[in-house]
Amino acid sequence: MPYTAEISRSNPTCFLFLIDQSGSMADVFPTEGAKRKADGVADAINKLLQTLVIRCAKEEGVRDYFHVGVIGYGASVGPAFGGALSGKELVPISEIANSPVRVEERAKKVDDGAGGLVDQNVRFPIWFDATTGGGTPMCQALSQGKRILQQWLGQHSGSFPPVVIHITDGESTDGDPSQAMREVTSLSSNDGNVLLFNLHLSSNPSAVSTAFPDSSSQLPDQFARTLFDSASLLTPFMRTVAAEHGFRLGEGAKCFVLNAELVLVIQALDIGTRPSNLR
Amino acid sequence: MPKAGNADSEYEDAYWPRHPLHGETCQRFAVADGATETSFSGIWAKQLVRAYCSGAFDNLADLEWLSKLRRKWWSFVRKKPLPWYSEQKLESGTFAALVGLTLGWKSAESEKGDWHAEAIGDSCLFQLRGSHLLTKFPLLSSQDFTNSPALLSSKPGNDSGVSAVVSATGEWQSGDHFYLMTDAVAAWFFRAHERNEAPWEVIRDLDNERDHPVVAQSGMKSFREWVDTARTQGLMRNDDVTIYRIEIV
């Protein structure tokens, strides 16, 4: 049965993030105050990296259950980690744990024990900074992702298949990405094909968000249908996690969200990266 | 034994006592299973089984006892400075399942007596008389295992698992066997029994002295060999495995 491989230090899996950094990502989320989409995504990715590190932390250190890469595309296409990880495509999670660019103090609302909330300062490691500019060379980013995964799968043929999380707010400016997406999802390990999430961010306050649809019939345009068609089906375990988040999904629910606000992006990141079989 | 691919030092189950005493009028036994996705869970499991067997509290749901044990766990894990990720992981504490058995004797010569068991989560107790499986506790079938069993938390105030503590009582007689098991092997036991097999016969024939010369000569399978084979054949999930075998003679 596919998507059941054990994830262990000797058989790690891989998460690859493809992040749109085009000029339009400097716009704010329509309903999230003054938060720029690029900043919201950077926060979500940094928070997720932190979660992945903590998930792999054991008393003796961080276990390398995951190899992680972040590829940005906009004015240029390439690895987007900062600091000591600059230029690296896929990095074992223990190396990520020990190499944040900096650690910021952020305020977090916590229970004050008297029915209210108070701000508490928490440490927030940063590995990836927002940057925006240029067009949307989606095909080039996908083909770079394919090359990275092909190489990784050559060394990890028994792995739980890599999960690619592609976050974008607009249409490709270097051609139809359908073929490049098919090439990514046609890669496989012995446990199944690479899983592709297409997370589309909202640009228009009147746009209705759609989460994990099982049909393209309600989608507004060809671009949305392309992202839907190219996205993978959610695995049974991902469906369980989605149900925990309160989503009621159809049989053929896909790894696709349209016009997402930040909360939906964060939920989708959790659904895509929660391991089912960690050893 | 630990999960395949892990070192012995990474075993996060626990059992107690290491060497049962003979001739006591009350004996306690326990196994516990520390949660894999948390840190310092093996220590928590060890502290739980030792505390249960010390008889220091009336029941597992005793919050005063639990508070003391939690303080002990926190003082252990705080002994040395930790990197940021370990600190943040500790914020959610750790968790363990536990099953404990207390056997009572009316006198040293008794051939009958009472037992009392307590459990939280999916570590299981089985009582066998001859070839009759008399007791299954707290789970009753292989269908009862879930991905999120109730567990005892090491975090002060996280008492949601406490309400899930269950207990049972019964009688034992000379010749009975009790088995305490953590979840992966307990699930195997249930499945074999549901296929009308006699899984206790397999366990009875195992020897836990891996390199013992008698075992090697007799052709008996060592515990480790048997678990390895069961895992390879897909009969047992790759998890820490603990079986505590108690035979009343």
Distance between the termini of chain B: 27 Å
Largest pleated sheet of chain A: 8 strands, mixed
Looking at the overall shape, the CATH architecture of chain B is 4-Layer Sandwich
Find the CATH topology of chain B: Phosphatase 2c, domain 1
Write down the secondary-structure element order of chain B: EEHHHEEEEEEEHHHHE
List the domain count of chain B as a whole number.
1
Mean pLDDT of chain A, to the nearest integer, reads 93
Question: What is the number of helices of chain A?
Answer: 7
CATH superfamily of chain A: von Willebrand factor, type A domain
CATH architecture of chain A: 3-Layer(aba) Sandwich
What ranges of chain B have pLDDT less than 50 throughout 5 or more consecutive residues? 210-216
Q: What does it look like?
A:
The complex is a heterodimer of chains A (279) and B (249). Chain A has one domain (13-273): Rossmann fold. Chain A is 29% helix and 25% strand. Chain A has 7 helices and 14 strands. Chain A has helices at residues 37-56, 93-97, 138-155, 178-185, 222-230, 236-244, 262-273; strands at residues 13-20, 57-58, 61-62, 66-73, 77-79, 91-92, 102-111, 117-126, 163-168, 188-189, 192-193, 195-201, 210-211, 256-260. In chain A, strands 1, 4, 5, 6, 9, 12, 13 and 14 form an 8-stranded mixed sheet that branches. A two-stranded antiparallel ribbon of chain A has the order 2-3. Chain A has a two-stranded antiparallel sheet with strand order 7-8. In chain A, a hairpin with a 3-residue loop joins strand 4 and strand 5 (77-79). The longest helix of chain A has 20 residues, at 37-56. In chain B, a hairpin with a 2-residue loop joins strand 5 (124-129) and strand 6. The longest helix of chain B has 15 residues, at 63-77. In chain B, the strands form 2 sheets. In chain B, strands 1, 2, 3, 4, 7 and 8 form a 6-stranded antiparallel sheet that branches. Chain B is 28% helix and 26% strand. Chain B is built from 7 helices and 10 strands. Chains A and B meet through helix 1, strand 2 and strand 3 of A and helix 3 of B.
